[in-house]
Automatic annotation (TrEMBL):
The keyword Metal-binding does not apply. The keyword tRNA processing does not apply. It holds the Pfam family Peptidase_M14. InterPro entries: Peptidase_M14 (IPR000834). Gene3D superfamilies: Zn peptidases. PANTHER family: PROTEASE FAMILY M14 CARBOXYPEPTIDASE A,B (PTHR11705), SLL0236 PROTEIN (PTHR11705:SF143). Its cofactor is Zn(2+). Belongs to the peptidase M14 family. Keywords: Hydrolase, Metalloprotease, Protease, Zinc. Residues 7-270 form the Peptidase M14 domain. It comes from Aequorivita iocasae. The active site is at E242. This is Peptidase M14.
């Protein structure tokens, strides 16, 4: 497709990897200051500017925010891919002109700059902004609410990353997930919820071309402390985006592309075969399960077990010198028949040593797993630098 060729040659190369802080996007904001309306919506708890970008001059008002959780940066990269796309003058010009005349897209590319700098989910005060929708105890929460009330959007986009633990019964991982949040405890299908579902169905239809069977949806239990639920309750269609994990791409350079494609679909810039969009189709998108690990070693022999067992390893993301290092630890030990992994290996009944020890302890950091009787056989080894 034409868009794939454009993207491979034109995505925003100034933003790469998982660690994206304000200092990384300031040069881009400076680049676009004559192209888009860019202003400061307020300051964070630590006094950091929180910029807002307006794209287009249409009557349909859309509000999107990214890095509400500071360590969730994939959608920020996708937003700047989108800005780069809208700015270019070579491809999809009629579609872009239509977008600019139809929509006014207000973007808060980094709602939690303090958390982004520290690479933490919470803000500088240790508060999860996505659980602060009612108390509005933090400056960042107040800024988002003030923007929401001022511009009165007809659609909200709540942009996040999800952990690599989500997948489906068929063994495929959840690369991208969506949610049309509930508006009340009964999960009533309000008009705003239905409209959000229709948008998700539309985006899912496109994504199936690129990642078939790897799009999921979240449980829609109501939590009024969450921003999406609060805005949905207020009657504004709200969509939760979750950028997930694809293969062994721990920098999430692949997933950013699928979020970018989703935005193009949402704004009618990129369309697939015409189909009838019905909110009921939303419920055919499989619900996310916590059934994935980064690595599983199968068929391990332990003296204490009669049957072979499996060892699951997960990575913790640690900020070191402005680089995200992935520290492996033992997440689970057992038959793990219902679990899957991005990388699986078969020990074929071998006894193993972990960190030169025979004992396996859940939660323990791990550097390597080797064959106890043949130390030249390495089943798992920590990568000393960040995962490429």
């Amino acid at each position: 497709m034409e868009i794939e060729h454009w993207y491979s040659n034109n995505f925003e190369t100034h933003l790469r990897g998982r660690y994206i802080a304000m200092k990384h996007i300031y040069p881009l904001l400076d680049l676009y200051k004559t192209c888009y309306e860019i202003s400061v919506s307020g300051v964070s708890e630590m006094g950091q500017d929180i910029p807002i970008i307006k794209v287009g001059n249409g009557n349909k008002i859309v509000l999107g925010w990214s890095q509400m959780h500071g360590n969730e940066s994939t959608t920020t990269k996708a937003l700047f891919d989108f800005l780069r796309f809208i700015h270019q003058k070579d491809n999809f010009q009629s579609e872009i002109e239509s977008f600019l005349s139809t929509y006014s897209f207000f973007i808060l590319p980094m709602l939690n700059p303090d958390g982004a700098k520290l690479y933490t989910r919470e803000n500088a005060n240790g508060v999860d902004l996505n659980r602060d929708a009612q108390e509005l105890s933090q400056k960042e929460s107040q800024i988002l609410r003030n923007v929401f009330e001022k511009i009165k959007p007809s659609l909200c986009l709540n942009l996040h990353d999800q952990r690599s633990i989500y997948g489906f019964k068929n063994g495929k991982p959840a690369v991208v997930s969506f949610l049309s949040p509930a508006a009340d405890k009964k999960r009533t299908l309000t008009p705003s919820r239905k409209l959000a579902m229709e948008y998700i169905v539309k985006m899912n239809h496109l994504l199936q071309y690129y990642i078939p069977g790897q799009v999921g949806r979240y449980d829609d239990s109501f939590n009024e402390a969450c921003v999406g639920d609060t805005f949905q309750k207020a009657g504004v269609p709200t969509i939760l985006f979750e950028a997930g994990h694809c293969d062994t791409d721990y920098q999430r350079e692949k997933t950013r592309k699928y979020i970018f494609y989703s935005l193009l679909s949402l704004f009618n810039i990129l369309e697939t075969d015409k189909e009838i969009i019905n909110h009921k189709t939303y419920f055919q998108i499989p619900e996310n399960l916590k059934n994935y690990n980064d690595f599983i070693l199968r068929n391990v022999k332990l003296e204490s077990e009669k049957k072979f067992i499996s060892v699951a390893i997960q990575y913790r993301e640690i900020l070191k010198n402005e680089t995200i290092v992935f520290e492996p630890f033992i997440d689970e030990i057992g038959d793990l028949k219902t679990k899957f992994a991005y990388i699986e290996r078969n020990a074929q009944g071998a006894e193993i040593l972990t960190n030169s020890q025979q004992n396996l302890t859940v939660g323990e950091n791990i550097s390597e797993i080797i064959d106890k009787n043949d130390k030249s056989v390495v089943f798992f080894q920590k990568i000393n630098s960040m995962i490429a």
